[in-house]
Amino acid sequence: MSAPVLEVEDLRVRLRTPRGPADVVNGLSYSVGAGETVAVVGESGSGKSVSVLALLGLLPQGVATVTGRALLQGEDLLTMQPERLRQVRGPGAGMVFQDPMTSLNPVLTIGRQLVEGIRAHTDLDKAAARRRAADLLGEVGLPDPAGTLDRYPHELSGGMRQRVIIAIALSNSPALLIADEATTALDVTVQAQIIDLVEGLQAERGMGVVWITHDLGVVAGIADRVLVMYGGRCVEDGTVDDVLENPSHPYTRGLLGALPDLAQPAVDGVVPDLATVPGVPPAPTDLPKGCVFWPRCPVRGDARCETEQPPLAIIGSSDVALPHRAATWCTESPARAGSTAVSGTFGTGSPGTSGIESPRGRLR
């Protein structure tokens, strides 16, 4: 088995804030293989974006303290000198940022922004780099690539701008692509096109992909493995089938239970209300002493949850290449565990993906 493209071990990020230290990422560990897609999911504020910005050295110095290990093709990103890190961004790791409109410089042409990155990491002259830029725009499916080089970001649609961002991220053939909410601001049809584009380029180039999202429909359609984050911690991970079909952590079950099921019939002419996860995520400056989900958990089936952090333990068989793990002592739903659920919470079953709609239609 080949070595992973990316290995993250015990990643921790602490930010200095006016309210005190904020522990935004707490002990995150995962790996990404060549040609593999790992989806990182969770609510806003769970630490997803900060975790990857920390890997690439994009957090403000003097504000962020980052510890742990992050090996990209054998080199530790967290101990690299700034000059070496600049060399790695591009050929080693490319990133598709969340908002294409703010990621592109509004006063520079698309061609200039593409050419700049290409020439920073190659020996190509300006003319050759411009030809390479046009080829990349064609590769990501933009019409009239040569003409697009002379256009400005405001002249392109949201989907076209996102394709430009993907072209920039892929311009130096990275071993790892990080996509941070790459389809969030796009309509469903364009989402499907972007997902198909990334999947096709990944199959062609064999790169690893970290896909950050809160859209479980996208996860079901694109991911090989899923990592669920809450309060800066990984609360569950495993293959996409294990996590979505057999969720073990109450938070994961809550996320899946809150998904609308378009096939669910109305009862007496009334469509049932969506289930919800009560409360709000904890502030990173004041995390719970025990399980990070305990204040919102409808199960609370173990007294240790309030005072101890449950370890990320294997659920089911350990004789598999990618074991299913969850950081909980409460793997049973309220109805099965016999505990008292918090009122107004998500349902008592363990929802799978039967109700998940991806941008390309119902899955499974």
Summarize the structure.
With 364 residues, the protein is an alpha/beta fold. It is built from 12 helices and 14 strands.
List keywords for this structure.
14 strands, eight-stranded mixed beta sheet, membrane, cell membrane, alpha/beta, 364 residues, four-stranded antiparallel beta sheet, single chain, Rossmann fold
Describe this structure in words.
It is a single chain. The protein has 364 residues and is an alpha/beta fold. It has a domain of 223 residues: P-loop containing nucleotide triphosphate hydrolases (Rossmann fold, 3-Layer(aba) Sandwich), CATH 3.40.50.300. The chain has twelve helices and 14 strands. Strands 6-7-8-3-9-10-12-11 form an eight-stranded mixed beta sheet, with helices on both faces. A four-stranded antiparallel beta sheet has the order 2-1-4-5, with helices on one face. A two-stranded antiparallel ribbon has the order 13-14. Strand 13 and strand 14 form a beta hairpin. Helix 4 crosses helix 5, helix 5 packs across helix 7 and helix 7 packs parallel to helix 8. The chain is globular, with a radius of gyration of 21 Å. The C terminus is likely disordered.
